Amino acid sequence: MSTARVELLVIARLDGPDGAAADLYSGELLADDRGHTDAYTRGPWWESLPVAEQDHPTDMAAIDCTLRTHGYTRTCDWHAHTTASGVIRYFATATMEIEDL
Q: Is 54 helix (H, G, I), strand (E, B) or coil?
């Protein structure tokens, strides 16, 4: 059985209506000439991972722990962005190994 590496965009929220979560989207990650992620195109939704608040404090370390628990590896630093509605979302990229079909 072989595996394939999937690159994903992660948009994390600490203050969602159902608590903290990481929303993952497929899409194309664009790299600069050194191979560092420079930009991305957000594609279809992949999945949402809620943070179990009783097990973790609600912070970026909890989001990272949730990603690792589900088999994802964050591949860049978090970047905060304030949306037009005034909420803060955190952006990063991550990879996961899946079975190659």
A: coil
What does the pLDDT look like over 28-81, one tens digit per residue? Answer: 767 777 766 666 677 788 899 998 766 555 789 999 999 999 999 999 899 999
Tally of domains in the chain: 1
Domain containing 56 equals 3-99
Nearest-angstrom CA–CA distance, 4 and 26: 14
* 99 CB neighbour count, 10 Å cutoff: 8
Query: Minimal CA–CA distance to 9: which of 66, 90, 101, 65?
Result: 90
Residue 62, SS3?
helix
State whether residue 23 is helix, strand or coil: strand
